[in-house]
Amino acid sequence: ELLELALAAALEAGRLAADGQAGIRVLDTKSSPTDVVTAMDRAAEEQIRRRLLGARPGDAWLGEEGGEEAGTSGVRWIVDPIDGTVNYLYGRREWAVSIAAEVDGEIVAGVVAAPALGETFTATRGGGASVNGEPLRAPGAVALDMALVGTGFGYEARRRAHQAAVLATVLPRVRDIRRVGAAALDLCDLARGRINGYYERGTNAWDWGAAALVAAEAGVRVGGLRGAGPGSDLVIAAVPGLFEELHDLLEPLGADTDG
Ligand code: IPD
Ligand code: CA
Ligand code: CA
Ligand code: CA
Which residues participate in Mg(2+) binding (predicted)? Predict the structure, then answer.
């Protein structure tokens, strides 16, 4: 029931955003001049919020643009109305609406809808993951030096300088790097074998909440450092075997709050 509602809301917001992509401009900036917001980021989140909280008024809310709101039902919606805003702004296709439903602190359902790509990813905890209704299973591990690894960069200059230094260590050790520009799509790509691994520092639950469930249900291990869960300090994802190799490469490189 939570999945159905999330799916309907994500598809509806995806249509709104797809229809409004041409001619979109920067409305505002947040943490840095490159951390942009468009009118559609706000309009899409507002539409999703009306739809979800209209149907379930007791639920809590965490949205990238709309902030946090407490609830009474034990269910919390974690929403990124447009993951990949810079792609959206440039008329690119790699952006997605991401909606996760959390029950008592655990994500139980997730939808990542990428209308410009014609791809909708869904997952429920214990119920598997799918893309456009087809079951998803991540392919087996490859060695780190044969792995295509996705990553992303935060918006603040200090954080980026550290991320560039980490990348300088990672790049010579892997097949190649991809920077798609939407963390949710990185994790969904991993679930279907379009990359082998992913890591990023400084993301938030709205970026990866839904997509981490898609990836996990497709057999991908999603975590943080030293047995921790995925978090804003670090998200690492890969199938078991490669996950450990990627973890051990990243673990000594420090957090970007250090740099
Ligand atoms: C960003 C994208 C990007 C990632 C950034 C995120 P936004 O989200 O997911 O790929 O590298 O860390 O902030 O701002 O486009 O929703
Ligand atoms: Ca995002
Ligand atoms: Ca966003
Ligand atoms: Ca943003």
Answer: 64, 80, 82-83, 207
